TrEMBL record:
Keywords on record: Amino-acid biosynthesis, Aminotransferase, Branched-chain amino acid biosynthesis, Pyridoxal phosphate, Transferase
Protein's pathway: Amino-acid biosynthesis; L-valine biosynthesis; L-valine from pyruvate: step 4/4; Amino-acid biosynthesis; L-leucine biosynthesis; L-leucine from 3-methyl-2-oxobutanoate: step 4/4; Amino-acid biosynthesis; L-isoleucine biosynthesis; L-isoleucine from 2-oxobutanoate: step 4/4
Cellular component GO terms, alphabetical: cytosol
A GO BP entry: branched-chain amino acid biosynthetic process
Pfam families linked: Aminotran_4
Function: Acts on leucine, isoleucine and valine.
UniProt entry tagged with the keyword Amino-acid biosynthesis: yes
Protein's recorded name: Probable branched-chain-amino-acid aminotransferase
A molecular-function term among this protein's GO annotations: 4-amino-4-deoxychorismate lyase activity
Lineage, broadest ranks: Bacteria, Pseudomonadati, Pseudomonadota, Alphaproteobacteria, Sphingomonadales
Homology family: Belongs to the class-IV pyridoxal-phosphate-dependent aminotransferase family.
EC id: 2.6.1.42
Tree of life domain: Bacteria
Length: 278
């Protein structure tokens, strides 16, 4: 797995790194992961825009042109894979405050993946941890992922695949790494950003696809009990794409929207120019 630190390829993933980096000590930094198909980053411009805005939100002075260059370099010679770009807070004076003198570190990795990552069926279980809808970290992919790590670890110990988060108001938010949609009577319903979710790229694509096909959509708060009455539930992110939820806790979902699910999946694969027979 090739890894670059500030544009320089690391030898066997080993590079000199200042241990006073605020990304390491305080989790001050952001990241983005993107799918690569045939040396091309899927939804490249959307990923670049999101990462650039995240850096700006944390006052991390990284040129968008450099991030773009690294995306291209990491995707080269990767038939099917994933790239991750991490931007740390860099080294600055001791303390919590960000220093304008700090120089961020940019770490880029590229890894091959198998096509089995796409559209898996998911068994989801509710976590007692809550998504803080007022938190800065709810809206940006920062390096602070402890809640997600603990929740998904507990879920897998219980033989589930992922964890479902509610927010502090008791509304459905998201899974550990994905946005959530429910289908009810042919309508797509997804929590609003104000309920503490990350506005994911694949989520935006699904909303765009629905609009293009006149599929009804509602962005509104969802209660857990309402979720149990859904015709279907699915998760979206940039790597799994669309993942149908088969179970919510011990409740098996009815999965009554096969045609709509198939349509959304086919629209995604058509747009990223990938055949599932590959």
């Amino acid at each position: 797995m090739p890894i670059w630190l500030n544009g320089v390829l690391a030898n066997n993933a080993v590079a000199e790194f200042n241990l006073n980096d605020k990304g390491l000590l305080l989790g001050y930094g952001v990241f983005d992961t993107a799918l690569v198909i045939a040396d091309k980053v899927a939804y490249r411009e959307a990923h670049l825009e999101k990462l650039t805005k995240s850096c700006a939100a944390l006052s991390l002075p990284v040129a968008s042109s450099f991030l773009s260059e690294m995306m291209e370099k990491a995707a080269k010679d990767l038939p099917l894979g994933v790239i991750r770009i991490t931007v740390t807070g860099g080294v600055g004076p001791r303390g919590m405050a960000f220093s304008p003198e700090a120089k961020p570190n940019v770490i880029v990795s590229a890894s091959p993946i198998a096509a089995t990552i796409f559209c898996p069926e998911i068994r989801l279980v509710l976590t007692p941890l809550r998504r803080n809808e007022s938190s800065f970290t709810a809206r940006i992919k920062t390096l602070n992922y402890l809640d997600a790590i603990m929740a998904v670890t507990e879920a897998r110990q219980k033989s589930f695949d992922d964890a479902l988060f509610l927010n502090t108001a008791g509304h459905v938010a998201c899974s550990s790494t994905a946005n959530l949609f429910m289908i009810r009577d042919g309508c797509l319903i997804t929590p609003p950003v104000s309920d503490g979710i990350l506005a994911g790229i694949m989520r935006a694509n699904i909303l765009r696809f629905a609009k293009s096909r006149d599929i009804p959509v509602e962005e509104r708060s969802i209660g857990y009990e309402e979720l149990l009455e859904a015709d279907d539930i699915f998760l979206t992110n940039s790597l799994r794409l669309i993942s149908q939820v088969t179970h919510l806790g011990e409740v098996a979902l009815p999965r009554r929207s096969a045609a709509l699910m198939a349509l959304l999946e086919s629209m995604v694969f058509d747009e990223i120019n990938y055949s599932r027979s590959q």
